[in-house]
Write a structure and sequence with these properties.
By secondary structure, the chain is an alpha/beta fold. It contains 14 helices and 19 strands. It has helices at 26-29, 40-45, 47-53, 88-100, 119-126, 183-197, 245-256, 273-277, 300-315, 333-336, 340-356, 384-388, 434-437, 444-457; strands at residues 20-24, 57-60, 104-109, 138-139, 158-160, 166-168, 203-206, 263-266, 287-290, 322-324, 360-364, 465-471, 474-480, 486-492, 498-501, 505-509, 515-517, 520-523, 527-532. The radius of gyration is 23 Å and the shape is globular. Bound molecules: 1-deoxynojirimycin (NOJ) and calcium ion (CA). The site of 1-deoxynojirimycin (NOJ) has 10 residues, from loops.
Length: 534
Amino acid sequence: MRTSANPQVTSDASWWRDAVVYQVYLRSFADGNGDGIGDLGGLRSRLPYLSWLGVDALWINPHYPSGGADGGYDITDYRAVDPDYGDVADLEALVDDARRLGLRVVLDVVPNHTSDRHPWFQAALADPDAPEAARYHFAPPSAEPPNNWQSLFGGPAWSRTPDGRWYLHLFAPEQPDLNWGDPAVAADFERTLRFWLDRGVSGFRVDVAYGLFKDAGLRDNPGAYSPTLFGHGPEQAMTWNQPEVHDVWRRWRSICDEYPDTMLVGEVCLADLEQVALYSRPDEMHQSFSFRLLKSPWSAESFADGVRTALDAFGAVGAPVSWVLGNHDKDRQVSRFGGGALGTARARAAALLVLALPGSAYLYAGDELGLPQAEVPDEAKLDPIFFRSGGARAGRDGCRVPMPWNADRGVGFSADDAATPWLPIPADWDQYAVSRQARDGGSVLTLYRRALALRDAHPALGSGDAAVSRRGDVLTVRCTAADGSVVRCVVNMGSETALVRTRGTVLLASTTGVRRSAGSVALPADTAIWLAEA
Ligand code: NOJ
Ligand code: CA
């Protein structure tokens, strides 16, 4: 494994248990060469910002050469860097720079499917008898597709090859599913993991980790997929969560165990969190995301249930919860929670809740600026969800719009101010720019920075035990550290001011409107506080 000359990152085998991991949507983070596309050079130049913000690690969305059909999740070469982003040397330099600043770098890996432009799929198209054909799911020509499986992006999960065969794609047609029954597939991914681990990365976020294997008999799914559910359940039992997949994670875990301080975090979109937690048993992936709060409406009941269910499910397997409030697949929190001042107040309160809870927290780039979902005109949209649903689903472009950095320079996303960003940035986004918020004591950015500093300093925040209670619209999480110190996070999710009785100290409030009097705190609607209990 590569080591840096001046490593600030110190060895800590379980750093991931309570890490704050910042998700970098590479294409939208910072454009270092002025072509309108975020890149590794741009990200490198912004590492001091991430260190100043106070996060522990970054996870980078796919950086690989790609067919461009699904935001980089259709990969043509797993052991290379897309020229839009730089090259492998740039990635190594990023890892080294990050390490010097005390930051770890986690990559995305996509094992469920490749791009249709991947050399394997191209070989399989050219010759049905090529060994590469066995690495995908093909079915002989017939009038109807082999079964009722659906693409998560809309429409059937089977498309035809030019010679009339069917092939399976649980996402876009440009993303043929791999056949994990073929040993060549597993062997190649092991090479990929080692390729990047040898370059000093601290692990992987594993895309569609609940996929890979499919029902061997290709039986029909009992029910239809619904994007509004917490995740897949029995209705999709033939396409997801097959028992064989756990052996893959055991194997990947044993590879990571050869590299100190590395970790795997799985994307496991199953409705039943007890099933999700099974992916993070001690010999499988270190973590798997809990998407409950990402999908919960703004209600104390729903959030309390989401927090309790996650703590119980992951606690049962000895894994920390990996909390997620936003990512590149979901509408921005500010908009989900009602938009404008209301949505912003709620997003601020939610940030304090998530950063108090024990476990790791994954922050999506731009959420620390309180970015809303951007309006992306239809003609600028790129997400296959928009196209495959015939426009019925808006798609995910609105949460992938480039970051506003500098209010004095347009928004300062590109090294060249005149560059056209790959997705249009709303005209008024200079108001969210880092340069502006960093100087404003009341900004969302300042709140995140304070919260992260306190989380670092206070043993009861981000680790220890949590007890969840709810009184009407007020949710309380009591966090107790190993040394006995206690911080209570109280969130008022109702529409009336709530009186919180306490003799403790207010460490942080999500708004300035919190009034303290002897023995109590008046907590306005849509507000959270951290109380250090005496
Ligand atoms: C989950 C990723 O987060 C999403 O962006 C992608 O479209 C699908 N997996 C398919 O790879
Ligand atoms: Ca660029």
